[in-house]
Amino acid sequence: MNHQVKPPEDNLTELMAFVLLGFADMPHLRWFLFGLFLIIYIIILMSNGTIFLITKMDPALQSPMYFFLANFSFLEICYVSTTLPRMLMNLGTQRRRISLVACATQMCFVLMFGGLECLLLAVMAYDRYVAICNPLRYPLVLNHRVCIQLVTGSWTIGIPVMIGQTYQVFSLPFCGSNQINHFFCDIPPILKLACGNTFVNELLVYAVSVLFVMVPFLLILGSYSKIISIILKLPSATSRAKAFSTCSSHLMVVMLFFGSGMITYLRPNTRHSEGTDKVLSLFYTILTPMFNPMIYSLRNKDVIMALRKLLSK
User: Fold this and answer.
1) What are the pLDDT digits (tens) for 73-92?
2) What is the mean pLDDT of residues 94-105?
3) What pTM does this model have?
4) Cα 147 from Cα 241, distance rounded (Å)
């Protein structure tokens, strides 16, 4: 935990802006990184946008599974758009300054979309659990009204919590350096710039992380433990292979997203390495949104067929 002694009031500087250092320590790679992240951003927008489009247009993709997938793809576009455009602007213009209000706004949206992704992945795991473990009740349990309620609940439940979390962080006094050694406004690097005792703030970070990261992750593990036990009892090897193929894509996204997120927010503050934080953040803010449509498209025959029909028009 960070227990800095609060300096005398005269030494406190009221910061009105921060500087996002991003990849300033690699100036020779500036344009390479700009081109790389621009390509990644375009891929994310096009691939997730395509999945969202085909799941809305194709009559064969109107089941709850694809309803959740469409919402997940739309969420990925929103999530990555809170960080990548500013990162590209900073790399291109070298103007890394960000106002305190803009920094707080970015953090709030990153936390909201990140928490929503955790909840939505848990909902998608529940969908697979019902489909495989209770297939006869699947249309009844996950009817259209229930699906809308689950998605709406996921979208709204985290908003007041994440606004409160952001307010708690930015209500702290900041003094000294205004340089954030990160490519977006995240909680760990911001707390390092705060003066005074941040124990309560860090405790709240852990509490919210447990609520929005650990609890959904444990629910997902519970769902898949039941799913795997059912799959292993299937008499046909073809049925087992099809069920595993459907679930493995979801698990790949889950492990990539939750693994990097838990290491970032649930490890002790004293073990935080700024370089490691940036690498881990790339996984859950950029790589997961990029790999999500590839994983679902390449491992799902229905999506591939819908994509072929769309391209043939």
Assistant:
1) 999 999 999 999 999 999 98
2) 90
3) 0.87
4) 27
Nearest by Cα to 14 from 192, 193, 174? 174
pLDDT at residue 38 above 60?
yes
- Determine the average pLDDT of the residues in 127-138: 88
Strands (E), the chain: 17-20, 97-99, 179-180
Closest CA to 179 of 192, 167, 170: 192
Report the C-alpha gap between 24 and 30 in whole angstroms: 8
How is residue 178 written in tokens?
């205004």
Distance CA 140, CA 249 (A): 25
CB atoms within 10 A of CB 196: 17
Distances (CA, A) of 186 to 104, 109, 154, 161: 9, 11, 22, 16
**b vs e for 217-246, b when ≥16 Cβ sit within 10 Å of the residue's Cβ?**
bebbeebbeebeebbeeeeeeeeeeebeeb
Highest mean pLDDT among 161-165, 178-182, 288-292: 161-165
Look at residue 270 and tell me whether its pLDDT is greater than 60: no
By the 8 A CB rule, do 83 and 286 touch?
yes
Report the distance separating Cα 93 and Cα 70, nearest Å: 34
Which amino acid, one-letter code, is at 188?
P
